[in-house]
Amino acid sequence: MAKNEVKISANVADTVRPKVAGAGRNPAVDAVRAVFGRITSPLLPDDYLQLANPLWSARELRGRVLDVRRETEDSATLVIKPGWGFTFDYQPGQYIGIGLLVDGRWRWRSYSLTSSPHSDGAGRKRTITITVKAMPEGFLSTHLVGGVRPGTIVRLAAPQGNFVMPDPAPASVLFLTGGSGITPVMSMLRTLARRDQITDIVHIHSAPTESDVMFAAELDELARDHDGYRLTVRTTKTQGRLDLQRLDEAVPDWRQRQAWACGPEGMLDDANKVWQAAGLGDQLHLERFAASRAATHGQGGTVTFERSGKTLTVDAATSLMEAGEQAGVRMPFGCRMGICQSCVVALVDGHVRDLRTGAEHEPGTRIQTCVSAASGDCVVDV
Description:
Blueprint: H1 12-15, H2 27-40, H3 46-52, E1 61-72, E2 75-82, E3 95-102, E4 105-112, E5 128-133, H4 139-146, E6 153-160, E7 173-178, H5 182-194, E8 201-207, H6 216-225, E9 229-235, H7 236-239, H8 247-250, E10 258-262, H9 265-277, E11 284-287, E12 301-305, E13 310-314, H10 320-326, E14 344-354, E15 360-361, E16 366-368, E17 372-380
Parallel strand pairs: 7-8, 7-10, 8-9, 10-11, 12-17
Antiparallel strand pairs: 1-2, 1-6, 2-5, 3-4, 3-6, 12-13, 14-15, 14-16, 14-17
């Protein structure tokens, strides 16, 4: 992953103004960026903007952590004030990429937004929230929950994702969530409450114990204040997992509802089978937190980043994006999960392997650097 940024570089490729995340969405902001670009050339506008405010950047989205609020013993909500260029009209249910500098390296992960989007700033705090559960194998999640301090500057990737709630919402809704899978649905619930669109919602949430339920007090308050919101919390340590083959017993009219499900892979696989068997696959919306990767094979190799003139030797499990950032190359990025296509570049020479499918790509093809790894020595157009 990336080293500390160098403000002024002798490499021409490092001073080429990169594509701005979110460019084109706000003409006024783009115009100001263009002015800064002209008056600060050949240096990057960031070199001057950061002197005034570290959240002002012409090349990337940034944010400042304002608060870290504990939700459960192993989860916390981060309140973040985005910087210049961020728009607040994302859709409820989308996720955002966050990059944090830890021990001199930028660590990245995508998390669902738990805040309610809004396109106007009238009377609203210009902040977003993500809620993170610390995972035993998750270095960044553990640090975000227990180690990040208010005032920390983070990098942000623009909101992405198709697991969203439309406006207006369907008349009848079913939410199936488990563990931290409640996070995108929390954004939906907060948005529906703000729009006064909670009409007929059944929500079944599973967690190991009652103390593991994120947003427990807020969910209870929603159930008290809205007759149209019916919440069932299932504690799996005492009640076991919800058997979706017996969903008729819990939600007799589930076939008439639009359903959103997010949680453990087993739960999502079971839900998919039940809805497909009923011929209602188009009524089920699934969110999977991680892209599955194929078993690691191959030997890795030396990756050459042609335009920046840098190289790095990596193993077969390291993505080209991670390799570039470790070498100090400013890599294009978006979701970092192989979904949004923002990281696509040309493979000039050699072969790379798709970490999800194991398929190899040949020279002359365009590849997603976040989910591709070296399969021998290779050259990429970055």
